[in-house]
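SAMPLE LOG
Freezer: B-3
Tube label: C17
Construct: single chain, 239 aa
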Amino acid sequence: MSLRAGLTLAILLAAGAAQAVPLAPGDSGFLPGTTLAERPDLAGQDLFSGTLQVRVPHPFWPEALVASWQVRQQVLRSDATGALLFSLQLVWQSNITPGDFLVDALWLDGWGAAATDVDYRTDLSGDRGPNFATRSADGQRLDLGFGFPLFSGNLTDDPHENGMPIVVATDATASANTGVFTVVGRFSDRPGEVFVGRIDGLAVPVAGPVPEPETWGLMALGMGVLALARRRHRVRRHP
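STRUCTURE (predicted):
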């Protein structure tokens, strides 16, 4: 095997090992991007659609000078698995500050014990998806990093970029708007400094509802009826 072929094989193996999706607590992985044709399990019934607004204040007059984005979120029930899918997209809104803003990462908090399978959709609108994903050791945070940051020009007519829709497939069956969405990045006129903007109300998975006492009673009654029916069936077969 030639040196070039060996290097190519090593790169492919490393890339395959890096695609650690789904992400267990403490795991990291490379996000290759996907489509609905490649992942039919991402299709499903729309259970919830909503929009948040996240703002990153500039250090000078932060109430007036901000960069802002819409966070378009959606919760679907997968047609293939019956579990919940969480879709979200960062869409540029405005940047009324002295400098351009570069989005380096997105933090999504509130995932608890749910299993997470993270990627982004390349067959929908958007300029770029995150390249890397890390899940915190306690499982609560998904840290999605951009190898090339999303650009937000500091005037309405300047160039700006939107994120491609991120999708998180889970094993959850219930959700609530109790999570936190955070934008992490830099202002071009403040090199070396990190700025964040966060907003509550992100849709995230939660444990399914605990059955009411009446439900437990009906379940017990049903189990009792089944047991009685099986006993009568045995008696009839063995008089």
